[in-house]
Amino acid sequence: VIRPEPCGVCGSRIRFGKTAIKCCQCQLLLHTKCREQCPSLCVPRPHHHAWPREGVLADFAPSAPPLVPALVVQCVTEVETRGLTETGLYRVPGAEQLVREWKRKLLRAGGVLPALSSVTDIHVVCGVLKDFLRGLKEPLVTFSLHPAFLRAADIPDDAASDTALRHVVSKLPPANRDTLAFLMLHLLRVSQSPDCKMDVLNLSRVFGPTLVGHSSANPTPLAIMEDTPRQCKVVARLLSMPPSFWKDFVGTEQENLVPM
After folding, report:
1. What range(s) does the Phorbol-ester/DAG-type domain occupy (predicted)?
2. pLDDT tens, 59-109?
3. Cα dihedral: 74, 77, 83, 89 (round 10)
4. Phi-psi label, residue 191: left if phi above 0, alpha if psi -120 to 50, beta otherwise
5. Partner of 180 at 20 to 30 A CA spacing, among 96, 240, 250, 252?
6. Environment class of 159 (CB within 10 Å of its CB; exposed 0-12, middle 13-18, buried 19+)
7. Cα gap 175→67, rounded to integer Å
8. Residue (of 93, 94, 92, 87) closest to 193 by Cα position
9. Is 163 helix (H, G, I), strand (E, B) or coil?
10. Structural domain of residue 180, as residue ranges?
11. Are residues 86 and 15 part of one domain?
12. pLDDT tens string 197-251
């Protein structure tokens, strides 16, 4: 398994690097230990019925700008309301079962989201946000622009790298661009909280694989090894850009991003 996915029998996630069994007809994926509990007959079904996370970011975005999905807004709002005093925000994992349950609940709710205030552990809310972003068909940094982001971040001169990144960000689909801007402003606030102990370097390590990903849905093991440090560099560079750049995309309509 290169990209962690849930087992079709028990529902628990099959982690990176583990061996799994996949049916070549119905695409059912399961742990090797769950083979005995597997249904004997194939039941062709859309993948999103087993794990409701299909779609690119634009599929979850609202119709009016800024084009940031309600799930992202609600998670960020909850984290900033009561999480900025928590040590290890986004680094400390939340309970996997609760993360999975709440992600499914939010996605199924559609536009009218249940309140996250009832989630006791703020790390679960962080987990839902990360899991949602990881589960998209392609990362915020799209497959086609992935090489350009890596090249821009690799430029040794800071000013030249900044200029190149601004240019590539402007080429993102509107929903990806607005959501990236919204997340960058949020992560900057997290990095500035002394209680969180999550500086830009720590956050870039956490969010590099999630936001930048790879240039295809099925990267080779070699590509994964080569991309990982460069993913972190991209996020670190993006977080070094002035907040005013990101506010140009979401700042003027910030009131639209506060969930009712």
Report:
1. 1-42
2. 888 888 899 998 999 999 999 999 999 999 999 999 999 999 999 888 887
3. 70
4. alpha
5. 96
6. exposed
7. 5
8. 87
9. helix
10. 57-250
11. no
12. 999 999 999 999 999 999 988 888 998 899 989 999 999 999 999 999 999 999 7
- Indicate whether 98 belongs to any domain: yes
Is pLDDT above 60 for 46?
no
pTM (2 d.p.):
0.77
The Cα 74–Cα 72 span in angstroms is 6
CA-to-CA distance for 145 and 211, rounded, in angstroms?
Answer: 12
Query: Cα–Cα distance between 167 and 212 in angstroms, integer?
Result: 16
CB atoms within 10 A of CB 163: 12
Give yes or no: residues 12 and 97 share one domain. Answer: no
**Amino acid identity at 123:** H
For residue 85, how far is the Cα from the chain centroid? 22
3-state secondary structure of 125: helix
Tokens at 24, concatenated: 């070549």
Q: What is the pLDDT of residues 102-154, one digit of tens each?
A: 998 888 876 667 788 889 999 999 999 999 999 999 999 999 999 999 999 99
Whole-angstrom Cα Rg for the chain? 19
Residue whose pair of structure tokens reads 């910030």 in the numeric block: 254
In 3D space, the residue among 169, 91, 174, 83 whose CA is nearest the CA of residue 120 turns out to be 83
